[in-house]
Amino acid sequence: MASTWSNNISFSVFGESHGPAIGVVMDNVPPGESIDMDKLLQFMARRAPKKDATSTQRREKDLPQIMSGFLNGKTTGTPLCAFIQNTDQHSQDYMKSKLDTLVRPGHADYTGALRYRGFNDVRGGGHFSGRLTAPLCFAGAVCGQILEKRGIYVGAHIAEIHKIKDDSFDSVVTSREDIMRIREKAFPVINDEKGKRMKRDIEKARMSMDSVGGVVECIAVNVPAGIGSPIFDGLENSIAQLIFGIPAVKGLEFGAGFNASKMLGSENNDEFYVDDKGHVVTRSNFAGGILGGISTGMPITLRVAFKPTPSIAQPQQTIDMKNRTNETIEIKGRHDPCVVPRAVPCVEAAVNIALLNHMLQYPNF
Amino acid sequence: MASTWSNNISFSVFGESHGPAIGVVMDNVPPGESIDMDKLLQFMARRAPKKDATSTQRREKDLPQIMSGFLNGKTTGTPLCAFIQNTDQHSQDYMKSKLDTLVRPGHADYTGALRYRGFNDVRGGGHFSGRLTAPLCFAGAVCGQILEKRGIYVGAHIAEIHKIKDDSFDSVVTSREDIMRIREKAFPVINDEKGKRMKRDIEKARMSMDSVGGVVECIAVNVPAGIGSPIFDGLENSIAQLIFGIPAVKGLEFGAGFNASKMLGSENNDEFYVDDKGHVVTRSNFAGGILGGISTGMPITLRVAFKPTPSIAQPQQTIDMKNRTNETIEIKGRHDPCVVPRAVPCVEAAVNIALLNHMLQYPNF
Amino acid sequence: MASTWSNNISFSVFGESHGPAIGVVMDNVPPGESIDMDKLLQFMARRAPKKDATSTQRREKDLPQIMSGFLNGKTTGTPLCAFIQNTDQHSQDYMKSKLDTLVRPGHADYTGALRYRGFNDVRGGGHFSGRLTAPLCFAGAVCGQILEKRGIYVGAHIAEIHKIKDDSFDSVVTSREDIMRIREKAFPVINDEKGKRMKRDIEKARMSMDSVGGVVECIAVNVPAGIGSPIFDGLENSIAQLIFGIPAVKGLEFGAGFNASKMLGSENNDEFYVDDKGHVVTRSNFAGGILGGISTGMPITLRVAFKPTPSIAQPQQTIDMKNRTNETIEIKGRHDPCVVPRAVPCVEAAVNIALLNHMLQYPNF
Amino acid sequence: MASTWSNNISFSVFGESHGPAIGVVMDNVPPGESIDMDKLLQFMARRAPKKDATSTQRREKDLPQIMSGFLNGKTTGTPLCAFIQNTDQHSQDYMKSKLDTLVRPGHADYTGALRYRGFNDVRGGGHFSGRLTAPLCFAGAVCGQILEKRGIYVGAHIAEIHKIKDDSFDSVVTSREDIMRIREKAFPVINDEKGKRMKRDIEKARMSMDSVGGVVECIAVNVPAGIGSPIFDGLENSIAQLIFGIPAVKGLEFGAGFNASKMLGSENNDEFYVDDKGHVVTRSNFAGGILGGISTGMPITLRVAFKPTPSIAQPQQTIDMKNRTNETIEIKGRHDPCVVPRAVPCVEAAVNIALLNHMLQYPNF
Questions:
Q1: Domain count of the fold of chain B
Q2: If you ran DSSP here, which 8-state letter would residue D246 be given?
Q3: CA-CA distance, A2 to A5, in Å (whole number)?
Q4: Range of the domain at A300
Q5: Which DSSP string do the residues of D106-172 spell out, in sequence order?
Q6: CB neighbours of D356 closer than 8 A, spacing ≥ 6?
Q7: Tens of each residue's pLDDT in chain C, 365 residues
């Protein structure tokens, strides 16, 4: 199912960028879980366009209205539906440009038109728009609050922007506090000096009518050992399926990831030991907290590669789909010169959903 | 479902390394498709242990017996079940060592025991064994033959072993012939000189009782444009869910992948044009043939990172699960010093399955 | 997934009787299908409370607002979400009664409270309310219009009310016109004389503060032969799974159904023959148009048993869930003395969805 | 998926009547559950052909071999695969008759050929054969043993054969012992006098080269209240989806079922009360232990209608599929004149699977 993910939890994302509303229906959320709406809105605000130069200047309020499955501040256990009205679209302008027939390079305009035989709503990217990550963030924020009550915290930061690297999470000793510290930042990096360089780079891309890509690193702490399943339903499979649902993602790695391919077994193996408190832990964590699809009890770590925003103001060669002619496109309007800052909570959201999903299968949840 | 993948096609992998048999049931394979058993066995033989120094010396015959869904050389459309008997296991030896209580670093021994509360079969890795990729390859070989009749070819090669890099597929002009040439090689690389260096490196790891990791690059050519779906059911999501079902995979990237995160939008965007024959194509293919989860018609390219084989002969620190004590483990027996050569057809198999799965949704299949 | 049905089409029903809204998200509806909104509202109006004595007098407008997946009168292929605001609920009154702790006999008040550990919304039956059939009817109406463009018509009528029987559809020769004739009736029966008796019986039940049950018979004509699958994914399985999603359904039979159990094989077997036009048909249709889960090309017939409305005004014995005491309950408010007339389009809706779902798997759809 | 059922448990049935083997793969069975193989074989023996006149005289040994997921008498939690070799088929004889082109009335020969475009194995009914209920019974027997350890017992009996009715289970007070008593009978009825009449009737049908249908009644006792879900994933939906996977089933009703449609609400509502032990129970059980898809804690009761065996020795009119001509068919070989006695454990199996499936979702399982 295209926009429905179904496992222990299922959720179904709907809507188009310039339609009346976007939203999500979550099925099989456990009943009786308190959801703090202020915290939820804070989570979603992290995805919203920033008020500074690093982001689009389109105003999106993205206020979710809960339509079902929620009563007296708690989940009811029945489907939880949230709705976000679209208020700020300028479809008229959009249709006046030739964006309905000129396909934008790097976008799904061409592939979407083929897939839906020309019937899909192309305004603002339609169902392919990055706006569809708002319902993902809603769902992820709900799951995150349920996990946090069990002590499980998921955090992410901008790990790279266009070759400029932030410091990394310590994959062995990162704490809840480390996560919370970054979550409060407007520009979520570990090392703010690096962050400044990144922001300058993003601003430079904007000034040259260009865009830049980057990497988000994510960590989940206090996930109990033994969560997940082998083969096709492991933590990596579920996280991957959800992460590749975020637009512009082109790569995903767990633990040492692609670097593991350059290592010797004697370097990469994380040796187990029983620590002072009698816990089974490992000294290194190149596995990223997952072996055989199942959590080891060490932090779960992953890195997600984002391509540069495809919407750039420079003239580009492309085709007119209707006439099948070669044309030049100039994309108007304000677009994020880099999606990575706003993608940070999206990555957290995907990981929250995958983790809660697997946690539900455990008797002592 | 742990070992069942269910989408347009479903398939269910079963078995343990030292049990009576392993196998797979495939449901919803289209009827009337000829399967050439010789070609299928050739595909599976590429996954079998090599007779040279790069691989384990355990003899595995891996002859699949088809139990259902196949008649007169053609699929019937009803569930296709294949069976591979386990014949060469030495469980007695295995149990005499302490491998049932000493957990091997980098393996799922520890996580599997927690997940299954100690009831899973640990002999030879049990259900977590790399042997379970044999039924995956069976399923992938069947799907591959069905795709090839539609002109779609999937090929892969060893792209890296422990920092030694092979040449890459040309992501714009790779042909069926390029794919077939590599498929026939015992050590599947593009550049045989690089291959020799890789083999020496693997042999060196073996001699030092160590192991090495690597990267497999995969390409699919002639996939029609418009295959796949947005959000959670795109080509990337399906391929990812299957690829992370192969043991030792720690990373996955499509097209430019992690490199895309280092690029400018003006570099990374693939400009469309209508070529001489009236086809819509792109000059570059940093997207790896996928935009918005849907095929562009250009080759689909991906790279998969494998960690070094965790079973190494060197003594390693670990724990005894029963007594929760710190111990030293020495893993006996012959293990591949590098899984990557045998993983090449496994990656192809996963991509074959994902592609056929999405092709089935199209009216003109 | 509780309220999500997922096969070739998936759809997810959400909402509570007294919440802000109810609705449905449909995923994988084919693109480019015209939906006539007037016809859709007519379909839904058949489920709405009647203005006469056979039905509740609560006003429900049930105007669906389409939020996504629909543009210029046609489906886009992306998720189709419809929304129905709840406007007429009197929750204050509801909570003042003791209906939150006294469980209504024959309702899901008790079982729902256990299932959701007391956190579900009980007002008006919450997610268990018959109101949730409105989104089912929306989805069914959409699917029905898509089927009708392929010549497939699904119709239903009140076959029995409290032992009073209507005539039956002719399972061999029923036509599109026969179906349309009944669809236009305010009280959908074949034989209006029988209908009058039924209405009197319903009115009598209301006057005695009681309720009555009944049977809906449904037929689908022009379904091509060969649609469906064996074992768990046949037409009967899918229809059954959806039909038992309608509140108050307690039985379902196809073709001769329970009567087939009283027959000899020589009576029950439908003999095939090739008719004048070269079509393969059967003289009788005790199979109800389905053999081995797959359509025969003859009309598909089924009968659905509904229990009497559990909400009756008479005092009944029950328990107080909070105090676990034996109590007497008197259910206030206006309830349908018989759900069967309003259930007729619900049964059609379920059959429409199941049929379109299976039709999608066919290349020549 | 045609022959795969996927919910909390998934299982995939494979094989053809005259192929090498039939079998089943069960995924997500909980680990550490003891399975008594003798009891399992006893369960399956109840489905095997009887040695008396009521059943076919084909010898089927149906000895399941467990290939995976089972170690030291306990489930491992990984996929449980069982295999049943086909040994007694006479395919040569079969193909010599014209059964490959003459379609048998009442069978899936015609519909299967269309569905699989003529590529399915038609020998002995192929994948549509009643033999495929052997793997269903295997799966059901496994689930039943797991349920019985939690005190939940499922039993069934022949409720009707061709209008001759057995007594019914008491839907309020049936005990484990009542169930076990019937389970031991060669001809499972409550009232053996009625059983004798049924047997005579079956024998009479055989002598007249005819067949008879019947009804199986099933009961599940000690199912805790609160199991199941609303709308599409209730107990009724799941049971229905599985029950309609048994060949020859044409109807299904829960509790009072079709009789409920003839009742007043005041008759049909089961009043709740708190009994001496403080348990919430109902005096009657017309609901069949299910309200809103969720168990009430009272016995779950259902009745399943089976059509008469379509394979009868009398000459019947039919068509030749290849030549599309009208022909007469005479079905040779020995067929059950009534499938109902052998269907009794199949119904239990389906209910066992559905119940265990829903039980798994509960924390205190």
A1: 1
A2: S
A3: 8
A4: 4-359
A5: TSSHHHHHHHTTT-S--GGGGGGSGGGHHHHHHHHHHHHHHHHHTT-EEEEEEEEETTEE-----TT
A6: D9, D143, D146, D147
A7: 689 898 999 999 999 999 999 999 999 999 999 999 999 999 999 998 876 656 554 555 678 999 999 999 999 999 999 999 998 665 555 554 556 789 999 999 999 999 999 999 999 999 999 999 999 999 999 999 999 999 999 999 999 999 999 999 999 999 999 999 999 999 999 999 999 999 999 999 999 999 999 999 999 999 999 999 999 999 999 999 999 999 999 999 999 999 999 999 999 999 999 999 999 999 999 999 999 999 999 999 999 999 999 999 999 999 999 999 999 999 987 789 999 999 999 999 999 999 999 999 876 67
User: Tell me, what DSSP letter sits at residue B334?
Assistant: -
**Cβ proximity of B289 and B355 under 8 Å:** no
CB atoms B240 and A237 under 8 Å: yes
User: Helices C133-148 & C340-359, crossing angle to 10 degrees?
Assistant: 50
Residues of C at the A interface, defined by Cβ within 8 angstroms: 1-4, 6, 10, 12-16, 19-23, 25, 27-28, 31-32, 65-69, 71, 74-81, 83, 115-121, 126-127
**Residue D365 within any structural domain of the chain:** no
Inside any domain, residue D136: yes
Residue B171 burial by Cβ neighbours in a 10 Å radius (0-12, 13-18, 19+): buried
Q: Which subunits sit against B, judged by 3+ Cβ pairs under 8 A? A: A, C, D
In-domain check, residue C364: no
Q: How distant is the Cα of A257 from the closest Cα of chain B, in angstroms?
A: 5
- Burial per residue of D114-126, b for 16 or more beta-carbon CB atoms within 10 angstroms, e otherwise: bbbebbbbbbbbb
The D-side interface with A (CB below 8 A) comprises 78, 230, 363-365
Q: Closest Cα of chain B to A23: distance in Å?
A: 13
Nearest neighbour of A291 by CB, restricted to B107, B240, B273: B107
CA geometry: angle A209, A211, A214, nearest 5 deg: 165
Interface of B with D (CB under 8 A): 1-4, 6, 10, 12-16, 19-23, 25, 27-28, 31-32, 65-69, 71, 74-81, 83, 115-121, 126-127
* B207 contacts on A by Cβ (under 8 Å): none
Cβ atoms of D40 and D142 closer than 8 Å? yes
Nearest CB to D365; choose among A78, A230, A363: A363
- Residue bearing tokens 């192809």: B348
Quote the ipTM score: 0.96
Please report whether residue A365 resides in a domain: no
The CATH code of the domain that includes B87 is 3.60.150.10
Give Cα separations from A146 to A154, A228, A241, C64, D266 (angstroms): 12, 18, 21, 32, 43
The residues, any chain, with a CB within 8 Å of residue C22's CB and separated by 6 or more, are A68, C13, C14, C15, C16, C83, C84, C86, C131, C132, C134, C135
Chain D residue numbers touching C131 (CB-CB < 8 A): none
> Which residues from chain D sit within 8 angstroms of residue C110, using beta carbons?
225, 272, 280, 291, 296
Q: Which chains touch C (3 or more CB pairs under 8 A)?
A: A, B, D
Give chain C positions within 8 Å (CB) of B230: 78
| Sign of the Cα pseudo-torsion (D32, D33, D36, D40, in order) | negative
Q: CA–CA separation, A255 vs A295, rounded Å? A: 12
Of the candidates C21, C71, C78, which has its C-beta nearest A67's C-beta? C21
